[in-house]
Request: fold
Amino acid sequence: MYEVEVTRAFPAKHQLTYADRHTEPMHEHQWTIRVLCEAPDIDGTGMGIDFVKLDGKVESVVSPLRNRVLNETPPFAGQNPTAENMARYVFQALAQDPELCRRVRVKKVWVSEAEGYRASYSEGA
Reply:
């Protein structure tokens, strides 16, 4: 099994609401998205998937979030825009891309808001 990984970063703001209903101040992060895919084999060029192609797929998912207030931006309008929710959103969006999934399986997505703070999402075995 081969693994291919790309990382993308983008700025966006968010404001979290906690269980006791207090909210933190609106603030911006340089969000870092790390996507790991696995390929059962390599193609005639020796690749599981071209980095540029995978990077483009990740960019197409995150570009609508770039420089936005996540609380006001689908899919986060109406849900807390946490790193965990971001990781699940990116994972599921990529996993539903039929062109991408012809060659690879999305294995895991990590999201970091800042150095040392990271959440991840994966499904199944």
